[in-house]
Amino acid sequence: MTEPRKPAPATRFAAVVYNPTKVDRETLEPVVATEQAEAGWGETQWYETTAEDPGQGATTQAVDAGASMVIVAGGDGTVRAVAEQLQGSGLPLALVPSGTGNLLARNMDLTLDDLGHSIHTAFSGQDRAIDLGMIDLRHGDGTKSRHAYLVMAGLGLDAKMLANTDEELKKKFGWIAYVGAIVKALRDKNRLRMRMKLDDGRVRSVWAHTIIVGNCGSLQANVLLLPDAAVDDGLLDIIVLRPEGFVGWVQIVIKIVWENGVLRRSRLGRKMMMGEVRALNYSRGRSLTVSLRREEAVELDGDGFGDCVALTTWVVPGALTVRVP
After folding, report:
1. Which intervals hold domain DAGKc (predicted)?
2. Which member of 37, 62, 243, 247 has the greatest number of CB atoms within 10 A?
């Protein structure tokens, strides 16, 4: 008597969540088709983001359909939205860097301008668990919202710069478009007045021009803003900028551009670093609570999220799985 045949295992398939304003699907499709066939995967499913759904809804559809991996093709905002929905699921996220930022890809040393390499990594790479930043915002009207971020959350000058950036110029000229926005933001004399609490420490009253909380450390042009930040260390790195006049801004430029970008790369250079300065302070922790005297603009991974009067942010270690070579 022959044993009944066992049903064949279901074929794995990937889902692509893509931003049509950043990615040409017709260019992407043949590359995906080739790699899926070589890896023995089934037919990839495609989900387009919209202005109303930057990626969360599309990702939910992909997961509900049974996808074994989500490939995200878009800018930092699309990556953030997809990661927000994938956190804790164990499903890997694969990056096809697009747009002007690509900050997560940069911080993970992934290839930025090679479509074939990115898709090959998606189907044939390995998994790496990284941390995810979470943030609760309390707005001036009393409403609250919760979001994820992968790279950085910022208050003050950082968020104002983004708010002042012309989106059409950004599309045409990339990061050159931020120059005018930076100049405009620097003219803003308003300071952040806030109360801060790091982990279980005491509450401190602080003034600053900018506060940035990072899960990663590098920005565009290899600017190392948070030199000790790592995507998988279970910690958030915090920088508070509080320059007093021209000398303060010079100290900040020296610390970030010269010390972090040049001196830190060698043992001799590290001995030449000037140490802590009043205009710039670093700290690290697993959670941070901030209460503001008035509403201030907030940004997450390069996108504005309106104004808030208070926030609590924390790190979720290993919450996201990313495909790497």
Report:
1. 9-139
2. 62
